[in-house]
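My current task is to audit a protein record that another person submitted. Please read both lines and tell me whether the tokens look consistent with the sequence. Do not assume that whoever made the record got everything right. I have pasted the whole thing underneath without changing anything:

===
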Amino acid sequence: MDGEINGEELRALLDEDEARVVDIRSPNAFERGHIPGSENVPFPSLVDEVERFEDEERVVTVCPKGKSSVQAARLIASYEGFDGRVDSFAPGLTGWEGALESSDGDERAADEGPEAPF
């Protein structure tokens, strides 16, 4: 893992299309709302899916509060085929100041939703 980034840094990466943003929450939580442009790879599936990121130059992991995403970033960084930069979004989804996109395409304000491990 290379480090942690804040909201301004993540927004800049998204605006420039310079990072692949991986939301590690459950599919249901992701459907309720996620950072626009992010993709869902639930943490329990990450070990089996990590090779999908081997050609990426930059990956940012996202979770509700910025804790589990550190573990996910470390997992991706430790993958033998991955040579890019990987960061965790430090404040987590609850610290995202922009609108969230739902799976139905609507944007809404950030909502923690019910407590969940991811």
Q: What stands out?
A: Residues 109-118 have pLDDT under 50 and may be disordered. The first helix runs from residue 7 to 15.
